[in-house]
Design goal:
By secondary structure, the protein is of the alpha/beta class. The chain is built from eleven helices and 13 strands. The structure holds N,N,N-trimethyl-histidine.
C-alpha cells in the first residue's frame, strides 16, 4: 500500500500572529481576522454550526453535489480528464477531506493534494483515506494561502504534472473581499495548470435567512465568535472577559456581506503584556465578513480572473451555487 506524503511550507509563526492580533486590537476600528476562530474548540464549534437548522450552506452544497454528481463529473472530465482519469485534484482548505472524498469515485483523480494551514490537521484524515483508496497518491500540504496561493516551483512541477482540478468548496471564498477573491481566483487558475476550478459560492438571499444562519437560536455561532477572544487571551496574554461581550451578525446589503462583530456590553479596558485598549459601551471588534454573491457577478469575477467557460448548478431555492470554471 502507498503512504501519504506530507509537506509543510509556511511555518505557522506565532510571533507574527501575536503582532497581527495586537495591531488589530490597537486599530481605530478594532478587528481580528476570522482565522483566529479556528483553535481546537473553534474548529469543533464550526462543525456544530454546520449541523444547525439555520446554517444552510453546508447542507445545501452537499445536496447540489448529490443531485448533480454524474453531470458534474462528466463536465469535469469533459474539460480536463484524459481517458476518464484526472491527473490531480487540489483541495483548498481540505480539513477532514470528506467533501473531496465523496467525489473520488466519480472523478477518479490519480493524485489528491490536500492543502490546509497546518499539515498536522491533514495527517489523520489522509492516513484513513489511504486505507480506503490504496492506489491513490495522497499528498498533504501545509500552506497558508490567505495572502498568496502558490506552491514552490519544484513542488508544483512534481505534484501538478498535468491539468488539475482545483476544488474550493464551502463558500470559503466568501471570507475574501471581491478584490482579494479576484487575486485568489487568478492564483487558483495558475495552479490548475490548464485544468479547472470547482468552487462553492453562497448566494444573496432574504436577509432574515442570512441573519438567522449567522445568529442561530441555540447560540452556537455566538459561542464560535466569542471563543475567538479565548484564543486571543491564550495567544497574547490578554484578559478579555467573555461575559462583557455580545455576538452581533448583520447583513450589509450595500457590500453584500454578513458582518460578524463582538460588541462591548459596557465601557471596559482590555490589557495584555505591553499594551491595553479601551472600549466604549457598544464599541465593536470586527471578526468576519462572509460575502454573498449573485451568480452572474461571480461568473464575471471568474472571467476577470482569466477563466473561460463556466457551468453552474444550484438548489431549488437558489440559495447556493457550485460552479465549474474552465481555464
Ligand atoms: C467557513 C467562511 C464558509 O462564512 O459561512 C460560519 C464561517 N462563520 N458561521 C461562513 C462561518 C459563522 C463560514 N465559512
Amino acid at each position: 500500500m502507498r503512504e501519504p506524503r506530507f509537506l509543510q511550507y509556511h511555518q505557522v509563526d506565532s510571533a507574527a500572529l501575536v503582532a497581527e492580533a495586537v495591531a488589530g486590537l490597537r486599530a481605530v476600528s478594532a478587528q481580528l481576522s476570522p482565522k483566529f476562530f479556528y483553535d481546537a474548540l473553534g474548529s469543533r464549534l464550526f462543525d456544530a454550526i454546520t449541523a444547525l437548522d439555520e446554517y444552510y450552506p453546508t447542507r445545501t452544497e452537499a445536496s447540489i453535489f448529490a443531485a448533480h454528481a454524474d453531470e458534474i463529473a462528466a463536465a469535469v472530465h469533459a474539460s480536463i480528464g484524459r481517458d476518464g482519469q484526472l491527473a490531480a485534484m487540489v483541495d483548498l482548505g481540505a480539513g477532514n477531506c470528506a467533501k473531496a472524498a465523496r467525489l473520488f469515485e466519480s472523478l477518479r483523480p490519480r493524485r489528491y493534494v490536500a492543502v490546509d494551514v497546518s499539515v498536522d490537521f491533514l495527517r489523520d484524515a489522509l492516513d484513513a483515506l489511504q486505507r480506503q483508496f490504496p492506489a491513490l497518491d495522497l499528498v498533504g500540504v501545509g500552506l497558508d494561502f490567505s495572502s498568496r496561493l502558490a506552491l514552490p516551483d519544484a513542488a508544483a512541477a512534481e505534484l501538478i504534472d498535468g491539468p488539475a482540478l482545483v476544488f474550493y468548496p464551502g463558500s470559503s471564498i466568501g471570507n475574501f473581499s471581491p478584490d482579494e477573491a479576484l487575486r485568489l481566483l487568478r492564483e487558483a487558475r495558475e495552479l490548475s495548470a490548464g485544468g479547472a476550478l470547482l468552487i462553492g459560492v453562497d448566494r444573496v438571499k432574504p436577509v432574515d435567512v442570512l441573519e438567522a444562519a449567522y445568529d442561530d437560536e441555540l447560540g452556537v455561532t455566538a459561542a464560535f465568535n466569542l471563543n475567538l477572544l479565548k484564543h486571543i487571551n491564550r495567544l497574547i496574554g490578554s484578559d478579555f472577559k467573555l461575559r462583557e461581550w455580545r455576538h452581533v451578525a448583520r447583513f450589509d446589503a450595500a457590500q453584500s456581506r454578513i458582518e460578524m462583530h463582538l460588541e462591548a456590553r459596557r465601557a471596559l479596558t482590555v490589557c495584555w503584556p505591553g499594551g491595553e485598549r479601551r472600549f466604549e459601551a457598544g464599541e465593536r471588534i470586527h471578526t468576519e465578513n462572509s460575502y454573498k454573491w449573485r451568480p452572474a457577478d461571480f461568473e464575471a469575477l471568474l472571467h476577470d480572473a482569466g477563466f473561460g467557460r463556466v457551468r453552474r448548478w444550484s438548489d431549488e431555492r437558489g440559495w447556493f451555487a457550485v460552479m465549474l470554471a474552465d481555464t
